[in-house]
Amino acid sequence: MIANPAILQAYRKCTIGRAPTCDVVLADESVSRLHAELTFLADGKLLVTDCRSTQGTVLLRLGGAAVSVRQEFVSPLDTLRFGTVLMPVKELLQAIHLKHPLAGDVGHDRQNASLVAAMPPEGAGLMRCECGAVKVKNKRCDVCGV
Questions:
Q1: 3-state secondary structure of 80
Q2: String of b and e for 123-132 (b: at least 16 CB within 10 Å)?
Q3: Where residue 121 falls among pLDDT bands split at 50, 70, 90?
Q4: Measuring CA to CA, which residue among 133, 89, 86, 90 is closest to residue 141?
Q5: Cα separation of 129 and 115, whole Å?
Q6: pLDDT of amino acid 107
Q7: pLDDT at 69
Q8: Which of 4, 78, 80, 145 is 20 to 30 A from 38 via CA?
């Protein structure tokens, strides 16, 4: 848990939820309309905050136990569960960069730089592929090729 998140300087917040106004829309009944926020901090860290969702947000660290999230730092190697929807943080970052190509540019490292490369223009429609990956609408999926 973050000792005093109010002192952290946020660069950009992205919303995650079922509502069409969210930055990342997860069309699943187990996901609240405004489920969580991912904050890109000026120092390059990522902070996830549960927005008092009905079924909660859970952090699944690589090789670790599940942690119920109120507010936690995450890395691209972690996975988050919003309700019953599992989403790797790396995939969440890709979805955010598809919609807002400059969202995480402050403090991004070599690993995150590859997520920004070759992104479609801002405003491109996003959807879930049959395999579960996030892809650009009317484009082939990078994961399964559909």
A1: strand
A2: eeebebbeee
A3: very low
A4: 133
A5: 18
A6: 42
A7: 95
A8: 145
